[in-house]
Amino acid sequence: MARWYPDRHHLPSHPAGEGRFAGHLNRWARHAAALAVVWVLAMVAYPSWASSDAMGYDDLSRLNAPQRALLAWFYHHGQWPLWNPFSFGGQPFLAAGQSGPLYLPNALFLLAPVALAMKLSYLFHELVAATGMYLFVWSICNSRRGAAAGAIAFTASGFFIGHQVHTQMFDAMSWLPWIAWAARGLLRSPEALRSPGHGHPAPSAGRRKSPGRRYAGVLAGTLALMVYAGHPQVTFYTFLYLTLYLLLCAVETRRSVPWRRLGAIAGSVAFGLLLAAPQWLPTADLVAYSDRQHPAAGFLLEGSMPPSAWLQFLSPFAIGGGDTGVPISLSTLLPIDHSNLFWEFTGGIGIVALALALAAAVTRFRTSAEVRCLTAIALVCSVFALGSYGFLDVVLTRVPGFDLFRIPARYIGLVDFTLSALAGLGAARLDAPIRRWVAVWCAVFFAVLATARLWGPLGHAPRAAFTHPAALCAAIVVFSVVFAQRDRLYGWGLWGVAALTSVGQAALLSPFVLVAQAPYQTPSGAVQYLQAHLPKDDPLARAAAFGETSISYDQAAAYPIPALNGYDSLVPAWYDQSVALTWTDAVLKTEPASILDAYDVRYVVTPAGDEPVFGLPGAETSYTHWLPSVPRGAIGLQMHLEAPASVMDGRPLCSITLTAGTRTVTHWIYSYPTEDYYVTLPADWPQDAATRVTIRSEAWSGSFTIADLRWVDASGSAAHTVLPVHRTLGPRPWRAVYQDSRETVWENPDSPRPAWMTTDLSGVQPASGTAQSVRWTANQQEWRVDAETGGWLVLAQTYDPNWRASVDGQPAPVEAAGTGYGGVLTAVRVPQGSHDVRLVYRPVTFSLGLCLGGAALLAGVVWMLWGISRPRPRARARG
């Protein structure tokens, strides 16, 4: 593939010794000024680092800051960040792939307060992205002006601006230019990873050492950092970019495919994956049993980029904000983005940079293979971003890999990246054809803006969303005509306008993430109450949020408070099917109400004025009676109500538990417009032993009155009344124990336990022994159990198959319990008697990943040291 400029533009080689050092110094000095300008403009584009406000908008407070505060908690307590006991009733923390527990730059959160560390982290990654993009564009065009233009366009792009709310996505994306630069360097390096003495001639005495080793190390290292940063979707996008780029390169070279260089890239990628194995192996394991195992097409295509949203590439403030004087609101968002999640649809590199990119694509498409590759990738990713509005939606929903990720609009990240590179190539060489096409594209942009204003969605946007970019387009056309013959003035003038336009729109929009006081900075009154009253001797006692409160989503993890809630992360499928306490409590309330007791929920926090359970003052929640024997021929028991239950929507009504000796069976009753409900006895149920009948209300609201209980024979007819009951059952009211103007804390009227012994895995059943916590850490638990009969120790935490258990030092299986709630709880089988039960969370995939990553790191260090210690070519020539 042809280079953008001939080889004479390369920096010259320098002799060994002091001359070599002087050469390196001179080479970097030539870039120092350009990089300094890029860094300063990047800092201007994101002024949040200098603000006294905190970064706390949306997901920053809901997920990212709390998880990084929790990350610091793990390391400060000397524990591996493997299991998160503070969200989702217990969840794999490292495997979830969101918090970057092993990501080295996240060490900032161990050294500084979360609010300050967030700003420093974003500033660091902005500079990382800018530097990497500078290197990537420079490697193509050998022009500092072009490299700086591309770096500024990418760093200030809409994808980065919008996804400030997604810390891990921002962090991961900042490494993409480095990966692209290293992969391109390996592909272009004439001696990629060659070693003299293995059938390859030694380099000539005056030639610098091949950079293949350096490119391979950067590619492997930055890919590993991207994986560790914690957003698998960005890693997938990077693999998509590399795949498309290398395929297009193979097509371009046709008969002379550089197999050795492609192999060097593949080897470097594999080495990077080995380095990152401790992260991606547990994540891959979790995906296999997570809520992403079989996602619906509608879920995957949610967040597709509507055609109207592409107007933001021309008018970044079409949704309001910025210099329009109109704040962003639903009335400005819906006509453009068709959604209130505007950060997912924010794209663009600045209208002048976009004109440069398209001009480069048009004028150099036939002569530059590099431009053809970047243009093709931009077009493919644009169609992917359209999602359900495009024609590749089948790929997004059915092709493995693609079908793991939602919100197709995020493919804008690759569009912004490739357009920024093209903009840099356009700025590098502003000859007459490019100048002419810049003016043409600005005229086209003006026409599109005018059409959208008169007959399209810009008609609903603020006036300045049209006038400002339209005036800029007109000014560029005039500027191109007036200075058509003054190459130097036109080139630097257009570069300056493009840079200021990109940086200006970023500086106006990027502060949307700032809030005066973030929830993770100061605990609310409800949080302070929970911190003071959750029992310290119960490691699994937790709270839950119903509605928007200060512990909703992952916000409780910032303090940390164990919660049943969690937010936007990989979780086991059974939690998602039976609890799903993120946006709403609707799923949870389709389960029996005792699920709160099963999860050891002591308090529920609601917005002020709401009530978690509509209980009945003075109501009984359960009824128990012993039946002396089972009549001959009886196959079941009938519960007859005095009238149909007040709630008849198919939701849980009650549970009926039958116990005879060591046998226990539970049936779950759901409410329907009927007065009779039946439960069936197992065929081998003891006929002569007394049977204990326990009926417990499982309704979240309403009541029902039991008239009597009757045995049912094989014919299906009810025998004479066995037991008159005449009891009204319903939920007991929760008591408000704390209240302020924002929220209320309600106390559970029951007395839930963190663990219990049972012979029935269906739910919270009468105990057949005791269980006491002896030692607890996030990844390890020890319990002292006294079991009256053989059964299970059930723990009030979400089941995960990677827990390992032992009873008195002997391995024991960990099983799913709480079958009445979808099998969401954790259980260990325990024989009769007193026992010590130990549970440890250490996934095999993490141990394997540590071994692979450690071995790869050691091999990499040896490889690099070997390369450094080898005699240099000139020394070998003298020898």
UniProtKB/TrEMBL annotation:
The keyword Lipid metabolism is annotated on this UniProt entry: no
Species, as recorded: Alicyclobacillus macrosporangiidus
The protein's name in its UniProt record: Membrane protein YfhO
InterPro entries documented for this protein: Uncharacterised_YfhO
Keyword Membrane: yes
Transmembrane segments: 28-49, 102-124, 234-251, 263-281, 341-361, 373-391, 411-430, 437-455, 467-485, 492-514, 846-868
Keywords: Membrane, Transmembrane, Transmembrane helix
